[in-house]
Write a structure and sequence with these properties.
The complex is a heterodimer of chains A (478) and B (289). By secondary structure, chain A is an alpha/beta fold. Chain A is 34% helix and 18% strand. The longest helix of chain A has 21 residues, at 455-475. Chain A has a 5-stranded parallel β-sheet. In chain A, strand 3 (154-158), helix 10 and strand 4 form a beta-alpha-beta unit. In chain A, helix 3 (39-46) crosses helix 5 (67-75) and helix 14 (267-274) crosses helix 15. Chain A folds into 3 domains: 7-139, Orthogonal Bundle (Fumarate Reductase Iron-sulfur Protein, Chain B, domain 2), CATH 1.10.1060; 154-249 and 408-475, 3-Layer(bba) Sandwich (FAD/NAD(P)-binding domain), CATH 3.50.50.60; 253-405, FAD/NAD(P)-binding domain (3-Layer(bba) Sandwich), CATH 3.50.50. The model of chain A has no long low-confidence stretch (mean pLDDT 93). Chain B is of the alpha/beta class. Chain B is built from 10 helices and 16 strands. Chain B has a 7-stranded antiparallel β-sheet with strand order 6-1-2-5-4-3-7, sandwiched between helices. In chain B, strands 11-10-9-8-12-13-16 form a 7-stranded mixed β-sheet, sandwiched between helices. Chain B is globular. Classes of the chains: A alpha/beta (478), B alpha/beta (289). The A-B interface holds A 183-185, 193, 221-224, 227-229, 233, 249-251, 253, 255, 259-260, 262-263, 265-266, 268-269, 272-273, 277-278, 281-283, 285-289, 291, 362-363, 410-412 and B 23-24, 27, 35, 37, 41-44, 68-69, 72, 83-90, 216-224, 226-228, 233, 238, 252, 255-256, 258-260, 263-264, 266-267, 270. The complex binds flavin-adenine dinucleotide (2 copies), iron/sulfur cluster (2 copies) and FE2/S2 (inorganic) cluster. One flavin-adenine dinucleotide binds next to strand 4, strand 5, helix 2, helix 3 and helix 9 of chain B.
């Protein structure tokens, strides 16, 4: 531990910024935006932590990473040990360090932020987590696990997103024989098809998946459970316990006129073409095209909308505009994403809502008809309800429109398995503590249960389910 | 990875591929499709399961070379690999005994009609098949369709095989001729499905069409395959591919199919200039075999 510093001295160390590609440069490439800490920077940042007895930060983290524990090791330069410490509770630190909404979780409650009365000045827990994970991958690439004796139990995980991957990892650690089914040709879920390369390099996810395969995971891509085969088929094939983690991948549309015009995408399609199918590389590297719009308009204000708008710039758009019907204060996207998007030149049109997409005689998109909005009384979500301003119609030109107003639960499994109960939105009903569904032998977790949430919450769900599944396999008691 | 057993031309630009995919063969039902990806960096494209053998795990796909991805597929040698084959996907055809079913297959659309005709026949229906193609050498699977049907009517645009005329001419004659038709299943080029649907609507005969929109994932995740059916947006990959032909907005669907034409052309031209000799050899083989 960095001995000798008083708390007062620690509080005087300014937060260590992480170097980034310049906005002008990164607008034109798909490489990651933040470049990472050097070991020296990480050790300096680590010295800012007060090593609190009462660790608010840990309670802010959905999987309770031992934050002062790992940061203390970073301060001492013991990066490998720090990585092991994080991995006790978080199996995907390189991912979480990059995409966790830290400003709402571990960092918002950090004592340093509280003392300095500025959340932006909290200990940079996410950045340190990322550094430790990257350093460890570079310096200890060898597989880090001890083989465990086989339990003789066969289990299935459906969906290879963060919930499924975490659950599979924990089940493998107990010696179970795990088969993971994934509908797409590649494992990773939103981490590979949704979140762009410039925020989360795909190589990181790939390495995590490789690690699980080395530990014995059977990965079966190209199987959409509920279509290709059913849950009952899996039981018939000898699986004793099944975890359903199929995510919230059902794109919602606004149901306004013009949504089926040429040039209108759901954010899922836009991002899947760009990321999973690598349409950035069309036609040299990839055969999958994507419309390279000059004027791209994105509906919505979440992370998905930011990712779409920033992707549009990298595909060569001259203008990329976020159209959001509330104000910046209500925008659900992460602060850092909004900041990065603004730096790159994404235009933000707040308190404006689309009412129609306009097209030419051949049905190609030409523009978006909008209305101005005002904030009225708070609605059910506690946010002030946007109300249209009468007579405020106007048109913004567009040749590509990306609809990013949210995703519903993936319906394939529940629709084909009536024994698995869902709520009125179609999310699978699962027990809060055990993740058990209403069908014996079936657990569920992640976005399919929570609705569109976060990577770290999905991981927490996977872990919870694995624990309950293991108990069931050991005792046979449902 | 799936091993390719057979990949042979059966008509100009039309290939039959037999590939080993045991789970697909085991679980597929008539009317379902797979998404294939013939290599790293290649597109995911949907192809109907034309036939399958659950005991050997062999799945038959019949595809027409129309662009880069299908051209890449045509170059896979027997013994080679299909990088990905996902499925079965889509809703199976609702098979029931309804009486008389007319299967209308246009061009390559005959391939996806085949398992449906078989299942309809097995369910106790009278199956009449109308097959159409531009000219004689473009007819495929005639023997298979004969085996699955009570009656087969052949129509060619130029009269070089069967009768001269369109499939709709034969269908109109049937409907006018007093044949009590309970269901029409039309699979082929969108314009053919549109014309068939317009015709049967006048006769009040229930008509199913199998839509071939552009797809990416094929699992309901992207919405790229959406079409308007009865005024509502539906996803062809999970809600279809079969829909009530009288409710489908074919014009919209045809426009959406052309969304990437400029890009596809660029990709195909680039590919052809790189593989000129091989493609010409394959084309020759097709014309002679
Ligand atoms: C563009 C975008 C950006 C985001 N940014 C952030 C962020 O910055 N920070 C953050 O914390 N969260 C972010 N999220 C949310 C986060 O990614 C999700 O909450 C998380 O991935 C959910 O994990 P999951 O494992 O439940 O599901 P998913 O990641 O959705 O994975 C589900 C997997 O199941 C597969 N599947 C679906 N149906 C079937 C089936 N029937 N059979 C087999 N497989 C099936 C899918 O193909 C997919 O691979 C973002 C989401 C999106 C879309
Ligand atoms: C459910 C379904 C079943 C199908 N079954 C068969 C079949 O059994 N045999 C057969 O030959 N064809 C079938 N098709 C059509 C086949 O998918 C396309 O011909 C193929 O994708 C063309 O790809 P390409 O790269 O060779 O040509 P491209 O040059 O990319 O495209 C040529 C045309 O094919 C269409 N197309 C392109 N990409 C896709 C895509 N990803 N999905 C759908 N259509 C696309 C476009 O309309 C385009 O104009 C089916 C389509 C669907 C939706
Ligand atoms: S996992 Fe996320 S919330 Fe937890 S410590 Fe790491 S960055 Fe913070
Ligand atoms: S609350 Fe902040 S200062 Fe305290 S232990 Fe956690 S990270 Fe360190
Ligand atoms: S192909 Fe993506 S939803 Fe149908």
């Amino acid at each position: 531990m960095a001995e000798g510093l008083t708390n007062k001295e620690r509080l005087q160390i300014p937060p260590t910024p992480m170097a980034e590609q310049s906005p002008e440069e990164r607008r034109h490439n798909i490489l990651e935006v933040p470049l990472g800490y050097t070991p020296e920077q990480a050790m300096t940042e680590a010295k800012r932590c007060l090593m609190c007895k009462n660790t608010f930060c840990v309670t802010g983290c959905p999987v309770s990473v031992d934050i002062p524990g790992f940061i203390g090791l970073v301060a001492e330069g013991k990066f490998h040990e720090a990585a092991r410490k994080i991995k006790e509770t978080n199996c995907l630190p390189a991912v979480c360090g990059r995409v966790c909404p830290q400003e709402d979780q571990c960092q918002v409650v950090c004592m340093v932020a509280k003392s300095l009365k500025d959340t932006a000045k909290s200990v940079q827990i996410g950045k340190l987590e990322r550094f430790v994970a990257d350093w460890d991958m570079a310096n200890h690439p060898e597989a880090d696990f001890t083989p465990v004796p086989s339990s003789g139990h066969k289990v299935a995980v459906v969906g290879a997103g963060p919930a499924g991957l975490t659950c599979a990892g924990d089940l493998l650690a107990q010696g179970h024989d795990v088969t993971m089914y994934e509908a797409l040709h590649r494992a990773g879920g939103v981490l590979v098809y949704g979140i762009p390369e410039f925020r989360l390099p795909k190589a990181i996810v790939e390495r995590e998946v490789e690690g699980l395969i080395q530990r014995g995971l059977h990965l079966e891509c190209n199987v959409a459970v509920g279509k290709s085969k059913g849950i009952q088929d899996l039981f018939d094939e000898g699986f004793e316990a099944i975890f359903v983690a199929t995510g919230a991948g059902l794109p919602m549309f606004k149901k306004i006129p013009g949504e089926n015009l040429l040039g209108v995408y759901s954010a899922n399609e836009y991002l899947t073409r760009a990321n999973l199918m690598d349409a950035y590389g069309f036609p040299e590297r990839s055969d999958t095209p994507i419309l390279r719009g000059k004027h791209v308009v994105v509906f919505g204000g979440g992370n998905v909308a930011m990712d779409s708008a920033r992707t549009a710039l990298r595909l060569g758009a001259e203008t990329s505009t976020i159209l959001y019907r509330r104000s910046l204060a209500e925008m659900p996207a992460r602060v850092e994403e909004v900041h990065h998007a603004k730096q790159e030149g994404v235009e933000f049109r707040m308190l404006q809502d689309s009412i129609e997409i306009l097209g030419d005689e051949n049905s190609w998109v030409t523009g978006v008809k909008c209305l101005r909005m005002e904030l009225g009384e708070p609605d059910a979500s506690g946010r002030r309800r946007p109300v249209p301003v009468v007579g405020s119609e106007f048109v913004i030109p567009a040749d590509v429109v990306v609809v990013s107003i949210g995703n519903g639960p993936n319906p394939l499994v529940p629709r084909s398995t009536p024994q698995i109960q869902t709520n009125k939105w179609g999310n699978i009903t699962a027990d809060k503590d055990s993740a058990k569904t209403t069908m014996p032998g079936v657990w569920a977790g992640g976005d399919i249960v929570l609705g569109a949430a976060t990577v770290i919450l999905a991981m927490g769900e996977g872990r919870k389910a694995a624990k309950s599944m293991h108990e069931f396999l050991e005792t046979g008691v449902w | 990875m799936a091993k390719v057993l057979i990949n042979e031309p059966i008509a100009p630009d039309v290939f039959r591929m037999v590939v080993v995919a045991p789970d697909v063969a085991r679980y597929r039902k008539a009317g379902q499709f797979v998404i294939v990806r013939p290599g790293a960096g290649k597109e995911r494209i949907p192809l109907t399961i034309a036939d399958a053998d659950a005991t050997t795990g062999a799945v038959t796909l019949i595809y027409q070379v129309v662009g880069r991805t299908t051209a890449v597929m045509s170059l896979i040698e027997p013994g080679g690999q299909l990088t990905d084959i996902a499925g079965p996907l889509g809703q199976p055809t609702h098979i029931a005994k309804v009486g008389t079913v007319v299967m209308v297959g246009g061009g390559i659309g005959v391939a996806p009609s085949h398992p449906i005709a078989q299942a309809m026949k097995a369910a106790g229906n009278k199956v009449i098949t109308i097959m159409g193609a531009r000219r004689k050498d473009l007819f495929i699977m005639e023997a298979e369709m004969r085996a699955a049907s009570d009656e087969v009517i052949l129509m060619s645009d130029d009269g070089s095989y069967g009768e001269k005329g369109f499939v709709t001419d034969a269908l109109r004659r049937l409907l006018d001729g007093g044949e009590k038709v309970d269901l029409v299943v039309a699979i082929g080029p969108p314009i053919m499905m549109k014309m068939v649907s317009l015709l049967t609507k006048g006769y009040g005969v229930h008509t199913l069409v199998s839509l071939n929109t552009i797809m990416v994932d094929g699992t309901g995740m992207c919405g790229g395959c959406r079409v308007t059916v009865g005024g509502e947006s539906r996803f062809v990959c999970v809600d279809g591919p079969e829909f009530d032909g009288h409710l489908v907005d074919f014009d919209e669907m045809m426009r959406r199919q052309r969304m990437y034409v400029a890009y596809e052309k660029e990709a195909y031209e680039a590919f052809k200039s790189g593989h000129k000799c091989r493609l010409e050899a394959v084309a020759k083989e097709a014309h002679h075999g």
